[in-house]
Structure prediction request, 283 residues.
Amino acid sequence: MVTPFRYTLRRMRGQIIGWGLGIALLGAVIIPFYSVFAESQAQFLAMLENYPPEFLAFFGDASDASAITTPRGFLQYYFFSMLPVLAGIFALSAGSRLLAQDEERGRMDLILAHPLSRTTLFFGRVLALVAASVAIVFIGWLGCAILLATSSMDVGVGELALAFLPVLAQILIYAALALLLSLLLPAYRYASMITGMLLAASYILSSLGKLHPSLNAIGDLMPYAYYQGAAAMSGLDWGSFLGLVGISAVFVVLAWWRFERRDIRVVGEGSWNLPLRLRKRAA
Prediction:
């Protein structure tokens, strides 16, 4: 398991550095801006009052725009609210390509020709994906934590670390779902597309559910509904965090079960395996 883990992690080093530094650079833009914001809070609040509640719902509690005046509220509105969506792009891309890309490029059968079991290959790569996700979150947190020393924010680095844990949970659940779908659908591009649609729907429906109770029933089924963001600085909701991690683990187990029992393609995309009657109708 060590060999596929090291190989996969080495292959993902560009993504780790790029996404980790990208999050850190986003923090480098947002965190120093708080000093300017603190000096002109009244103007910012007046501007927010002109925004429709539907717009503010995508950034935090739309019923209390004044929450943005606190360091935690500021970070939620300008940084953490969109972070799961941005990091989710990495998750759906990395998860859907983890195994299916090698299969479609004709490399998987050659890899499995070595004295290496499917289980060893699968979990070695999954652990590398988890390690890459942790590394991205850590680099993002480290960059933001360094900037806190020069900021007027009254936020500790430990509190900031708690806010990044829900981001990690979001990455893991979308990566695991994309991995599962990549082994169920004919091509990884379909898995990436469907996971991306779910990511967008989760963000939109969970955000609008704060204003429209009729959407709560649907929004509560989405991963973003259990994302704390900067609110975790006051106390992490371990139930939501462990729940998302647990669902991710279930997706991984199902993906492993599918990978163990499916026929490996020599090269190219697969088919939808429609029943014969449906194939005749489609023709």
About this structure: The radius of gyration is 21 Å.
